[in-house]
């Protein structure tokens, strides 16, 4: 790589990029908390911030889960009836492909420099890019989840005429895996996130406004234990002041640069990464 394409974006200095890369290489267990911002460059609008759906249209009703629980049959009937309806978010999600940031994160994992991704996104783009160690705290739009035994199934395989659809293993009611407004985070996902927050000594905060709980708590818990936080976001967040390094810019631009820098530093230090 030439010096020209190594130059940093206007939103941060080369020293800041270097600090972020050194933090990743020096850490034993690197995690990432990812939010809707990483998928903006894939054409999926976020909720908050400039261009966010809630900024444009206001906040939606927050009782989706209560409605589902009150009458799963009616919820499924309505959902199937408006399957062809193209909301801005659905259209974005259907057409979205992983962008340079998703690919860079998959690369970081392959290099042994990123141990786990906690994503708040439901778009499946990390998997499409090749990442493996992922916890989806708000579920996955391409899966169904059993309300009784928590088993997940690919949506395409199980949508039959029967509504609500039933779990092949236990007969329980299936809902979309996506966590609805008002719905508790599935216990298995929550436990995985908590375990990661206790293990990590470096957490990347990529495209998250850091105001959605409980996700916004994991970096705070990790930071309290001494983990170093690195933020990748064009805008300031409530966590910016806690961060060891802040890379102000779009993830699709910043992440590949960070990963290239990590690759060089790791190669220069020789040997495999001392990660756990
Ligand atoms: P958010 O919508 O609250 O905030 C988005 C954040 O991304 C902001 O901080 C913004 O500054 C930043 N951002 C904007 N463009 C960016 C870019 N190019 N690169 C990096 N950062 C950028 O997102 P959130 O904190 O994840 O919370 C919203 C919730 O909405 C999530 O929990 C998620 O479940 C859901 N959601 C998911 C998707 C998706 O799956 N792609 C899309 C919209 C909303
Ligand atoms: Zn079941």
What would you note in describing this structure?
The protein is of the alpha/beta class and 276 residues long. Helices cover 39% and strands 13% of the residues. The chain contains twelve helices and nine strands. The strands form two sheets. It has a six-stranded parallel sheet with strand order 3-2-1-7-8-9, with helices on both faces. Helix 2 packs across helix 12, helix 4 packs across helix 5 and helix 10 runs parallel beside helix 11. The longest helix is centred in the last third of the chain and has 19 residues. It is globular and about 60 Å long. The two termini are 30 Å apart. The N terminus is likely disordered. Bound molecules: nicotinamide-adenine-dinucleotide (NAD) and zinc ion. The site of nicotinamide-adenine-dinucleotide (NAD) has 28 residues, from loops.
Number of helices: 12
Our estimate of the beta-strand percent is 5-15%
What characteristic shape results from the CA principal axes?
globular
Structural class of the secondary elements? Answer: alpha/beta
Mean of the pLDDT scores? Answer: 89
| N-end to C-end Cα span | 30 Å
Radius of gyration: 20 Å
Oligomer: single chain
Task: Enumerate the spans where pLDDT stays under 50 for 5 or more consecutive residues.
Answer: 1-9
Bound molecules: nicotinamide-adenine-dinucleotide, zinc ion
Query: Which strands sit side by side, in order, in the main sheet?
Result: 3-2-1-7-8-9
Classify the helix fraction into a percent range: 25-40%
Helix-strand topology string:
HHEHHHHHEHEEEHEHEHEEH
How is the biggest beta sheet arranged? 6 strands, parallel
Q: Total number of β-strand segments?
A: 9
